[in-house]
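Hi C.,

You asked whether I'd gotten around to modeling the 340-residue construct. I have! Everything is below, sequence then structure, no commentary in between.
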Amino acid sequence: MPEMYVPFGMRPRAETSAATCVVTVIKLYLLNNPGKCRSEWYSDQPDYQSGLQMHQLFEKIHKVEIVWLSQHNRRRIKMTVITGIILVIVGFAAGLLGGLIGTGGCSVMLPIIHFWMGFDAPIAVGTTLFAVIFTAISGAWGHLVKRNLDVRATLWLGGFGILGVILGSWLFTLLVGQTRLLGLILGLIFLWPATRMVWEGITQRKMPQREGSTIPGSSWGMAVFGFIVGVATGVAGLGGGYALVPGMIYLFGAPVYVTMGTSLATMIPLAVVGGGIKLAQGYVNLAAGLLLALGTIGGAQVGARTIKRFKPSTLKLLFGLYFLYVSLKFITGYFGIHIW
């Protein structure tokens, strides 16, 4: 029996799933039997035609493999009572942080359900972004009633942010089969809120206190900023509050209380479009997303009511260090170094 050629990158590992093994066997068969890829029309053509057909077939198989493995991982997470309670608690903690510093809480939920609850990175991204839909609506409604948001800024940031989310969601589909690369990108994105919060926590720097009920700055500047945040939202699944809040304050000179409401209102279309796309693509664990949302809604209300009891600089330092740890965990994982 002739020896089968097995490329190094296709050799099975101990943790390889059954789905991966089946797809790998199909690939190896085609690789070692290139003539099977030829149609009758190509039978008298040079060998490179077979190679082209094989490459195209491999691409189709790879796309099927991505969806298959994602669905396989989603079913593997057992939704027990304990798991449900943990998800609600995680959501509550995320909502509490969001209520205190004006973010949607994705930066808390995503690493916890990925690293410590076993959700695959693509599923964790989609599930947390889906949960933020409810968090943003709950938080923004309160600010809307109090008129703590700038409608013009929300429309420009959110409108062009939607275009960015669509582009980011397309880029996400290119990265979903490369979980290590996706983790590296998540780690690099987490560096921004981590360094900002640690710096402000250590120096006890306060956000500039400005008066007014509107956000100054050019509309096109807001459009570009919203588009960039939208792309990051579509790729990383983070709601965008980690960038919207400091961006509006330091780049556009926005009043702090208007910034909080505008940030949450802008996150609604970003989360709805991004979360909806990932739900349609099968990258959302619906039960987990709803339980996280339930917790975030309660946590956001508690955070908004208890914000004056906490020292902002201490909170920023603690959560900044946590985000820095998460960032390093993602980045080192890309290079095969796993830290606890």
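If it helps when you're writing up: The CA atoms of residues 125 and 237 lie 5 Å apart.

Thanks,
B.
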